[in-house]
Design the sequence.
């Protein structure tokens, strides 16, 4: 069973969202998603300053098995990307909820975070997969 931190929110497309409490969120892919993908070899990150809407494909995670789109779980402006992933994409595998974060968004609507799944809801969604 994958680790699913209870303080985070989740999208059914396997992104996690950490509310930073200042109108911004940090986003990455879940431990479950990185386990499905396998060893990361490349992560294509979005452009800082780009405005994204919920459901937009904004990044790509490439592993030895497959390439997978990463979607924006909330709407807003990309304010930071994890540049360490350019040289060390394996951080997504070793620390999916920490050093393997992908990008940060300044929220258009903080209420969107509340609409995402909690840990139990996400656990139920992956049990159905």
Sequence:
């Amino acid at each position: 069973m994958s680790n699913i931190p209870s303080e985070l929110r989740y999208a059914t497309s396997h992104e996690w969202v950490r509310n930073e409490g200042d109108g911004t969120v940090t986003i990455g892919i879940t431990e479950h998603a990185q386990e499905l993908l396998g060893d990361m070899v490349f992560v294509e990150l979005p452009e800082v300053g780009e405005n994204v809407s919920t459901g937009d494909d904004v990044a790509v995670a490439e592993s030895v098995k497959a390439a997978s789109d990463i979607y924006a779980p909330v709407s807003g402006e990309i304010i930071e990307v994890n540049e360490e992933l350019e040289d060390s994409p394996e951080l997504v595998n070793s620390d999916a909820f920490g050093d393997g974060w992908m990008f940060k968004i300044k929220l258009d609507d903080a209420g969107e975070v509340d609409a995402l799944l909690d840990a139990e809801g996400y656990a139920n969604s992956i049990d159905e997969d």
Summary: The mean pLDDT is 96. Residues 119-127 form the longest helix (9 residues).
